[in-house]
Structures are given as C-alpha cells and as structure tokens.
Amino acid sequence: MTSKLKTDVLETVSGSGTIALTNQLTGMTTASLPALGSAQMPTGSLLKTTNYNYPSHTVTSSTSFVNAGGTAPVYTVVNAGCDLLVTHSFDMARHANTNYWVYAQLLINGSLLAPSLHVGTHGQSNDYERINFDAYITGQSFTAGQTLTFQMQLKSSAGQNAAFDDAGNGPQSLTIQEIKG
C-alpha cells in the first residue's frame, strides 16, 4: 500500500516560521546528483579491491629467498595517504621426509612492510600446509598513481625442496584492498 503525505505548509516546532516545499525536486534526475569520487569519500572507505591468482607451482632448494609465483603482481594506488589490507592465501610444502623449515614472505616494492607478511613452517614429512596471512599496512605515505610490486619469495632452511604450490586447497591468491586513510 502506498502512503501519501500532502501538506501546503510545514511549520517549525517553535511556530516561529514556515518551510516552503513547493517544487523542490522538479527536474532533478540521478544525473544531476554530485559524483562521489575517492576525494569525497570519508576515511575508512574501501576505494578499490584487486585480486591476483598465482600460477600453480614454484619449487626451490635455495637457502636464500628467491622469487616465486611467476610474474609479480603490480597494483596502482588510487588515493594518496591510503592504507592497504593485504590478504594472501597459498599452499606451502616440503618435498622431503626430513626435518627442516620452509619460509615465505611477500615484499612490496622490495621491502617487507609488515612482519605478518613473513611466515615459516616446520615439519618432518612430505606435506602441504595452507597459509593465510593478512596485513593492514598504514603510515607508508603512498601517493596517487604510485605502482606497487608485490613479490612472493620462498626459501628452505636445509637445501631441501620448498614449494609454493596449489595442492587443491583453493587458489593461490593475493587480494589488495585500498582503504582511504
């Protein structure tokens, strides 16, 4: 049921005046409303979300970090002074039945910007582990139009195979959410 309110005069609570409403919306369309761009959005607004899926397999026996995951994803910042929420999900494996550590880290423009973007896993068997890590990166003075390169790296503690792999636990993915700072 549609309700209508019809009045020709609105009066203030104190009775000190009236409010004229005659034809206030005449000719208004959605096209006449102002656009809300990133500059007008309030702090904490989600400005952009980008998702990358990595190739399925990288293996190394290096005891120093090496690049993994194929071509490094590149992200372009929308708004100066923003924060980033980075979510990374992948499978990490040891390919030997010996006792050693496997490490992974995600560099942004060559730097580890948050301790939570570094992870290690230890085991004594040939197994895969699903790794999920999140980092809220703030205070970095990013600028609008700046490009950020996200490089996944992997190493082994003992010269045994370490793998950045898709073991059937879902895609190896990186999600970048830009939040207005």
SSE blueprint:
Elements: E1 10-11, E2 18-19, E3 46-53, E4 57-60, E5 66-68, E6 74-76, E7 83-94, E8 100-108, E9 118-123, E10 128-137, E11 147-156, E12 162-165, E13 173-179
Antiparallel strand pairs: 1-2, 3-13, 4-12, 5-11, 6-11, 7-10, 7-12, 7-13, 8-9, 8-11
Structural description of this entry:
The chain has 181 residues and is mainly β. Helices cover 0% and strands 44% of the residues. It has no helices and 13 strands. The protein has strands spanning 10-11, 18-19, 46-53, 57-60, 66-68, 74-76, 83-94, 100-108, 118-123, 128-137, 147-156, 162-165, 173-179. The strands form 3 sheets. Strands 3, 4, 7, 10, 12 and 13 form a 6-stranded antiparallel β-sheet that branches. Strands 5, 6, 8, 9 and 11 form a 5-stranded antiparallel β-sheet that branches.
Q: Nutshell version of this structure?
A:
The chain is an all-beta fold and 181 residues long. 0% of the residues lie in helices and 44% in strands.
Provide keyphrases for this structure.
181 residues; mainly beta; six-stranded antiparallel β-sheet; five-stranded antiparallel β-sheet
Query: Which shape, going by the Cα principal axes?
Result: elongated
Rg calc: 26 Å
Low-pLDDT regions: none
Number of helices: 0
Percent in helix: under 10%
The termini sit apart by: 44 Å
The proportion of strand residues reads 35-45%
The SSE order reads EEEEEEEEEEEEE
Overall pLDDT confidence: 83
Specify the biggest β-sheet. Answer: 6 strands, antiparallel
- Backbone structural class: mainly beta
Query: How many beta strands in the DSSP annotation?
Result: 13
